[in-house]
Design a protein that fits this description.
The complex is a heterodimer of chains A (73) and B (925). Chain A has 73 residues and is mostly helical. Helix content of chain A is 89%, strand content 0%. The longest helix of chain A is centred in the first third of the chain and has 33 residues. Chain B is α+β, with helices and mostly antiparallel strands and 925 residues long. In chain B, 47% of the residues lie in helices and 21% in strands. Chain B is built from 32 helices and 35 strands. The longest helix of chain B has 39 residues. Classes of the chains: A mainly alpha (73), B alpha+beta (925). At the A-B interface, helix 1 and helix 2 of A face helix 11, helix 16 and helix 18 of B.
């Protein structure tokens, strides 16, 4: 159960983070195309990395609890 | 042959025991009888074919003692039918979970305080009544309950609470572990979470400031070693806390931590200065900064050293936590400093465009410097908060001098055994608890009781280990050694109190538990806002200046500031640190408070109920009046003393002491006869001397009508008055009374001043009780209360809506102490009373009741101040860090990440310092 919980949580966290990063990417890509003077691709890529790190921290804190409840119940 | 225990009221001394034993033995068929006045019972073996229990009881009643009726008398536990079936159940208690799917579980509960088989039946009935309990069996002789229950409906805590609410105790297997590597209150919560998830753990309290974990566990499911492994697995260290030289080891560990953080601080400070000058000098164009300092590669090398040495602890902590799915303060710092460092490294080694020419090595270095400064200050102040307990631990003597074969021998204090004769010279510490067998001295007990005056000790007096022998050499028999000494018990009590949480902490725990997650969510949202909306909307490149051209870097800096400024530590520290200092201060003043819950309950008190005997009064009768009808007062007193010389009754002892105090020589009587319930008759010098009640005098043909007025006057003043007669002629009246303690009146007056309603509870008749109450200034008297009814009297007061504190000292006060909202035991009292109370006053001084309440109020006030500050700091600091003031200020205001780090470090230090101010406040008015 512990192992399952770990794997499910990791997968869920990665998927959630990728979803958030993708949202960031699409929004940032829009900004880069609309206002290329202010928004550079480097801002977008660097932002994606930072958003992924923060999203992983947040989702890795939330998912284990939810999955544990589901597995138990 | 039948064995019974007969409960008896009215026995006061060895003499009463003898009378009851003889009364029982006088019944034909009784083979064995022994009475115990302390327990209030007599054990009787009798042949039921010859006599009956009723006949024995009648004989005892005829001897003028009250017998408690059948249903209250307990059969002696032995080969009775009640025990055997339960024994079988006890064998089964090793069964663990019997039905996992149905969540039907079995748990053994160790029970204390049962005195007879009917106690076991009471507990069994109460447990079986609980919704969710399938079956409960209580075994009296094994002192265990085996409960089969539905875990979805009832918890083991509820089962235990039911048992304790009946007035019994639940013995838990408890262990206190020393926990290391905790950096903030979240670490403590992480350990609690991990342990609570572990099977076999009943309750857990982890104290971050104390670095202790107190765990109640079921040894059938988990061992102490397994518990240690669980803690180690989540990234912390744990070891069994050993009593011996604990103070030294703790001090060493604390010194090491201070040294470690000081080294880190020096490195961070030495490197942060050139890094900041170089980085800011280049970014802001400071000409006074030498060019070599502005070099990116040099800044990279210096910042990397900061990250690798002083900063490593945050990354290591984060890694260990994340490995086990735990987040703590380290993660916030690691994310913030790591992001600033990595962006700078990328800007140094990669060509990312014009906007990325700036590096943020200064931010990373300053963040680490300020946070390390905070940790250093915290390590210093944390040591001060636990000073009280360290002082107590440090009080213990290292060696003792004992008599071996008539010679003195110095041995380590741990090797002293009970009954060893210990020799202590003037100026030396008394090593263990004991009873003086030789010598006279004055002992300074201030270190334990707070009492500044040395206490005189002579043969028979009790001495306490760790106190200082001042004037003379004494020899004493060791009565308590090792962990049984008063000092060891006090330390345990204070430690237990410090690891317990106050209900107010629940809110702080909930906040601290979700704090780090919430801050990361806020940091992410802040980043999104400033990246997509704020940067463009508020035209940051032109309004902010400093060459800020990248929306990513700007949003990142604000997001880092949010991570750095938030301080779960202040929230987590607010309550435990105040409890620690408060209970420590209490211990220094001879007031032991058993945990945080008491502090909160003490705020709501409005009524203080004092037990009379031994609490407000000295508990020993003393001679108060001698009225001579024939001859002089001294002649009357001499007659009374001669008569009472052979008596073991406390009233007799008081008369004898009174006579000796007046220098009267008291010769032995020729014959002595106790007349139960009436008095004493002796022959002396050919004369017949009687001392006793008016009934005794009337029965002997004496007319006392003319003296009844005086007798009643004395009785109205709460005194016990007796006639003294010589050769059937009244010689005078003698009165004795339990006298008030010196400070009782002042104690009651203080409580009145504080606005409390003060009551007195006693078994005395109304007239006597009111007389005493009048002397002491008490406004409400609960008189003629039988010992077993004291608790119900407290209940009645509570039913009036009052919040009641009961102050008592005796075994018979224990139920009332438990029933009251706050039980306060006077330290000279019995172990049972001390066990039942939530506050223990070590000094035999009732004025400490007011002090204890004042200390409770002070501590709770500090908790509230700390919590307010912690919540205020975070709820103001975080929005400012998020840039809420940016649109409304000109020039736009943003907190610098380094300033945020300094504020964060200051916030937890502020909480600690504010709490330490408590130490300066005096508990006197």
């Amino acid at each position: 159960m512990e192992k399952k919980l770990g794997i499910y949580s990791l997968v869920a966290s990665i998927v959630t983070s990728i979803v958030i990063v993708l949202i960031f990417y699409f929004l940032a890509a829009g900004k880069v195309s609309i206002n290329p003077e202010m928004y550079k691709p480097i801002d977008m890529y660097a932002g994606m990395v930072y958003v992924f790190v923060l999203s992983m921290i947040v989702s890795a804190s939330i998912w284990p609890g939810i999955i544990e409840k589901k597995l138990k119940g | 042959m039948d064995d019974v225990i007969i409960k008896i009221k009215g026995m006061m001394c060895g003499h009463c025991e003898k009378t009851v034993t003889e009364a029982a033995k006088s019944v034909k068929g009784v083979t064995k009888a022994s009475a115990d006045h302390k327990k209030g019972e007599a054990k009787v073996s009798f042949d039921s074919s010859v006599t009956t229990l009723e006949t024995i009881k009648k004989a005892i009643k005829d001897a003028d003692y009250e017998v408690i009726d059948d249903d209250e008398a307990c059969p002696v536990p032995g080969k009775t039918a009640i025990i055997e079936p339960s024994a079988k159940v006890a064998d089964k208690i090793i069964e663990k979970i019997v039905d996992k799917d149905g969540e039907i579980k079995k748990t053994p509960i160790k029970i204390t305080g049962m005195t007879c088989a009917s106690c076991a039946q009471n507990i069994e009935k109460a447990l079986n009544k609980i919704d969710g309990v399938v079956k409960a069996s209580v075994n009296f002789s094994f002192e265990k309950a085996a409960v089969e229950y539905d875990s979805s409906k009832v918890t083991t805590e509820e089962l235990e609470n039911t048992i304790t609410s009946l007035g019994y105790g639940v013995a838990k297997n408890e262990v206190t572990l020393k926990v290391g590597l905790m950096h903030c209150a979240s670490c403590a919560l992480n350990i609690e979470t991990a342990l609570k998830k572990t099977t076999g753990i009943k309750s857990v309290n982890v104290s971050f400031p104390l670095e202790r974990a107190k765990i109640a566990y079921d040894p059938e499911f988990i061992s102490v070693q397994d518990i240690i492994k669980v803690i180690e697995n989540v990234g912390y260290s744990a070891s069994l806390k050993l009593e011996k030289s604990d103070a030294d080891r703790e001090q060493r560990a604390r010194d090491e931590e201070i040294k470690r953080q000081r080294t880190n601080l020096v490195i961070a400070l030495v490197l942060a200065i050139p890094i900041s000058l170089g980085d800011m000098g280049r970014n802001l164009g400071w000409a006074f900064v030498p060019d070599f300092l502005k070099n990116d590669y040099l800044l990279f090398i210096l910042a990397t050293i900061v990250m690798l040495f002083p900063g490593r602890q945050f990354f290591e902590g984060t890694y260990k936590g994340l490995k086990h799915g735990m987040t703590d303060m380290n993660l916030l710092i690691a994310t913030g400093t790591g992001a600033a460092y990595l962006v700078s490294v990328a800007a140094t080694f990669l060509d990312l465009g014009e906007a990325y020419k700036h590096t943020y090595y200064d931010t990373a270095a300053l963040l680490i410097m300020f946070i390390v400064l905070g940790r250093y200050l915290e390590a210093m102040t944390k040591g001060k908060t636990s000073e009280a307990i360290r002082k107590l631990m440090g009080l213990a003597a290292k060696t003792a001098r004992i008599m071996v074969n008539g010679e003195e021998k110095e041995i380590p204090v741990e090797d002293v055994k009970i009954n060893d004769i210990v020799v202590v010279r003037p100026g030396e510490k008394i090593p263990v608890d004991g009873k003086v067998v030789n010598g006279l001295t004055a002992v300074d007990e201030s270190m334990l009781t707070g009492e500044s005056m040395p206490v005189e000790k002579t043969v028979g007096a009790e001495v306490i280990g760790a106190t200082m022998n001042k004037t003379g050499m004494i020899k004493f028999t060791a009565t308590k050694v090792g962990s049984d000494t008063a000092l060891a018990q006090i330390i345990k009590l204070v430690e237990d109190a410090q690891t317990q949480k106050a209900p107010i902490q629940k809110l702080a725990d909930i906040v601290a538990g979700h704090f780090i997650l919430a801050v990361h969510v806020l940091a992410l949202l802040t980043f999104f806002f400033w990246f997509f909306i704020g940067f463009e909307k508020f035209n940051v490149p032109s309004t902010f200046g400093m060459g800020m051209a990248s929306p990513f870097l700007f949003s990142l800096l604000i997001s880092i500031t949010v991570l750095i400024i938030s301080c779960p530590c202040a929230v987590g520290l607010a309550t435990p640190i105040a409890i620690m200092v408060g209970t420590g201060k209490g211990a220094e003043n001879g007031i032991l408070i058993k945990g945080g819950e008491v502090l909160e309950k003490a705020q709501k008190l409005d009524t203080i109920v004092f037990d009379k005997t031994g609490t407000l009064t000295k508990g020993e009768p003393a001679l108060t009046d001698v009225i001579a009808v024939k001859g002089s007062e001294n002649e009357v007193l001499k007659l009374a003393a001669i008569a009472e010389k052979g008596s073991e009754h406390p009233l007799g002892e008081a008369i004898l002491k009174g006579a000796k105090a007046r220098g009267i020589d008291v010769p032995d009587a020729e014959s002595f006869k106790a007349i139960p319930g009436r008095g004493v008759e002796v022959k002396y010098g050919g004369k017949r001397v009687l001392i006793g009640t008016r009934k005794l005098m009337s029965e002997n043909g004496m007319d006392v009508t003319s003296l009844i007025g005086k007798l009643e006057e004395l009785e109205q003043n709460g005194k016990t008055a007796m006639f003294v007669a010589e050769n059937n002629e009244i010689a005078g009246i003698i009165a004795v009374a339990d006298t008030l303690k010196e400070n009782s009146r002042e104690a009651v007056a203080n409580l009145h001043k504080m606005g409390f309603s003060v009551a007195m509870i006693t078994g005395d008749n109304k007239r006597t009780a009111e007389a005493i109450a009048k002397q002491v200034g008490i406004d409400r008297v609960l008189s003629e209360v039988l010992p077993e009814d004291k608790a119900s009297e407290i209940k009645k007061l509570q039913a009036e809506g009052r919040k009641v504190a009961m102050v008592g000292d005796g075994i018979n006060d224990a139920p009332a102490l438990t029933q009251s909202d706050v039980g306060i035991a006077i330290g000279s009292g019995t172990d049972v009373a001390i066990e039942s109370a939530q506050i223990v006053l070590i000094k035999n001084d009732v004025r400490d009741v007011a002090k204890a309440i004042r200390l409770s109020k002070l501590t709770l006030r500090k908790i509230k101040q700390n919590l307010f500050w912690a919540f205020f700091y975070n709820s103001v600091g975080i929005p400012i860090a998020m840039g809420i003031l940016y649109p409304f200020t000109n020039p736009p205001y943003l907190i610098n990440p380094a300033l945020a780090a300094a504020a964060m470090a200051a916030s937890s230090v502020t909480v600690t310092m504010n709490t330490l101010l408590m130490k300066r406040i005096k508990l006197q008015e």
